[in-house]
Amino acid sequence: MSSVATETAVTIQVDGQEVAVPEGATILDACDAAGVETPTICYGPTLTPVNVCRVCVVELDGSRALVPSCSRPAEEGMVVHTDSERVRHSRKMVLEFLATGVDVSQADELGQWADHYGADPDRYVPGGQTMDEPVRVQDNLYIRDYDKCVLCYRCVEACGDDAQHTYAISVAGRGFGARISTEFDVTLHDSACVYCGNCVAVCPTNALQFKTEFDLRQADDWRPEDQTVTQTVCSYCGVGCNLELHVQDNQIVKCTSPDDHDVTKGNLCIKGRFGWNYV
Known about the structure:
Elements: E1 9-14, E2 17-22, H1 27-33, E3 57-60, E4 67-68, E5 79-81, H2 85-101, H3 108-117, E6 142-144, H4 154-159, E7 169-172, E8 179-182, H5 198-202, E9 208-210, H6 211-218, E10 228-233, E11 242-248, E12 251-256, H7 270-274
Parallel strand pairs: 1-5
Antiparallel strand pairs: 1-2, 3-4, 3-5, 6-9, 7-8, 10-11, 11-12
Helix pairs in contact: 2-3
């Protein structure tokens, strides 16, 4: 005989709307089910929440502090407010603080949320103050621009338990000098990096980006609005990874993979991510 498991659901209230989600789902999942858009930075759909950015916070009845929606499990009877004055003020300040010390000019989604909440980082540090560190270009695959890094940990998670299990990078330094680094700050060639590029795929600010994209941006010729994206299957082995080829002027400029694909979940190896020059 076979038994059919019944999925237990919990019902919570999001901005006055009752939403049922599976047991174990987060408040963010409930917000998505309710059609409520929520800003996120350190959260990724394929990654473990690390609760470092606090831009997804919501107000929860009975809770003294705002709670991170990306990691707080939904509990029966919760009453959640995502657009209260307290929430808007908190999100606005997080976005302002980030923009005072980081170049977010290529973080399009953050820019849209900053406009939404009326964030004005110039009221703290006019013009901002970054580390002003030269871009690290150590190979022809991808670059590292620490002035754009918001220390969201997404690359660390992708390199570690959530995807690659290489553990080539982690956070080094303290305070304003904190940055994502290889062991002992050695070059990528000398580190444990296997050049899968999964860190590049999850970066929300373009602190990690394809060398091809970087070169085009330097030449003021990066035109995403003119690019086409073609989905295909990687030709290197039989795993069946799906590729998204970004093409500009009839040339492949970078390769990504869909987060919702059963095989890849957004991840690729060095061949799939960077091995398309033969085309």
